[in-house]
Amino acid sequence: MQYDIAAKVILAHCKEAVLSIFCGLPVRSATLIETRPQETVSLRRADFVLRATFEDLIERLVLLEFLASWKPKAPVRTLEYRCRHLLEEELPVVSVIILLTPSSKATNCYRDEEVQYSFRLVKIYELEAEKIVERGPECLYPFVPLMKGGVKFIDEVEQRIYRGSCSLEEKADLLTGMAILGGLVSEEIPRKMLERRRDIMIESAGYELIKREGYEEGLKVGMQQGIQHGIQQGIQQGIQQGIQQGMQKGLEQGMQKGLEQ
Questions:
Q1: For the segment 134-174, what is each residue's pLDDT rounded down to a tens digit?
Q2: Using N-to-C axis directions, what is the helix angle for 188-201 and 168-182, rounded to 10°?
Q3: Cβ 175 vs Cβ 204: under 8 Å
Q4: From CA 169, how far away is CA 167, in angstroms rounded?
Q5: Partners of residue 148 on adjacent β-strands
Q6: Which residues of the chain fall below pLDDT 70?
Q7: Gap between the Cα atoms of 97 and 78, Å rounded
Q8: How many C-beta atoms lie closer than 10 Å to residue 155's C-beta?
Q9: What is the pTM of this model?
Q10: Euclidean distance between CA atoms 113 and 128, whole angstroms
Q11: Which residues are CB-neighbours of 154 under 8 A, at least 6 positions away?
C-alpha cells in the first residue's frame, strides 16, 4: 500500500515524464483519472488510469500498475484490467507494469490455449540512474535509489530536490516518495531522510496517508490483540469460576449427605 501512495504522489507531478521516459510512450499530455471504488473482488481496476493524448493526436487510456515485487498472476490481472477499461471507456488501451525490484520470473506476456497477450514491462532496476541524474526531470529523482547505480546518487538527488525551485508541496511529495521507494533498497534510506527532511516531508499528502495508514493498522492490530487477550482472559476466568463453583457445590453436597447420615 505504501508504494501505491509513493507512486500516486510522484505521478501527481510527473505524469508525462513517467509515460515518455520510463514507458517509452510518445505522450503530449496526460490526466490522471480517479477510479471508482472497487465494490467487489471481481471489479478490479488498474492502480492508475491516465487519459493521454499521444503525438499522433489519438487519445488513449494508459493503465499503470506499480509492483514492488513480481506477482505470478500479474499478467492475467493486467489483461483483466485492460478488458474492463476497454469495455467501459471505449478508448484504445495501453497497459504498463512498472516493476520496482529485480525478478528473474518477470515477463511481459501471457499465453494460454485461447489468448496471446503482451504489455509493456518497465524494469526500473535496469534503468541507468546516472542518465536521470544528468538529464532529469527532477520529478523522476524519487526513483533513483531503485535504478542501476542509484544508491551512490541518493544524497545528490535529495539535495537537488530540497534546494530546487519547485513548490514546497512538490518538494514534500518528491522527498516522501523517494523515502518510501528507498525503503525497498535499505531501511536506512527512509530513516535518514526522515531525520534530515521531516520538516518538509510532513507537508506531503503522502506523508499524512502513510501516517493514517500506520495509525489505522496499529489500531486494528491493537483491537485484535485486545480481543484475543479478552477471550483468553475470559476463558481463564470462566475455568477458575467453574472450578470454584464446582468445589463449592461439591462441598455443599458433601455437607448435606453428612447431615443426612
A1: 998 999 999 999 999 999 999 999 999 999 888 888 988 89
A2: 170
A3: yes
A4: 5
A5: 128
A6: 1, 34-46, 205-261
A7: 8
A8: 12
A9: 0.75
A10: 38
A11: 144, 145, 182, 189
Distance (Å) of CA 15 to CA 11, 31, 79, 128: 5, 8, 22, 20
Q: How far apart are CA 4 and CA 32, in angstroms?
A: 14
Q: ∠ at Cα 182 (181, 183), nearest 5°?
A: 90
Question: Which grid cell sits at 148?
Answer: 542501476
Record the cell numbers describing residue 162, joined without a space.
530540497
Handedness of CA 154, 157, 163, 166 (dihedral sign): negative
* DSSP structure string for 60-88: EEEEEEEESS--TTHHHHHHHHHHHHHHH
Q: State the virtual CA torsion across 76, 78, 83, 85 in degrees, nearest 10.
A: 160
Q: Which DSSP symbol is given to 139?
A: G
CA separation for the pair 206, 217 (Å, rounded) = 16
Q: In this structure, which amino acid lies at residue 11? A: L
E strand intervals along the chain: 27-33, 48-54, 59-67, 93-99, 109-111, 116-118, 120-123
Contact 88, 51 (CB under 8 A): no
Residues 6+ apart with CB under 8 A from 74: 65, 67, 97
Q: Are 112 and 132 in contact (CB under 8 A)?
A: no
What Rg value do the Cα atoms of the chain yield, rounded? 27
What are 166's three cell numbers? 519547485
d(CA 180, CA 207): 10
Cα separation, 129 vs 203, in Å, equals 27
* 46 within 8 A of 74, measured Cβ to Cβ: no
Distance CA 95, CA 78 (A): 7
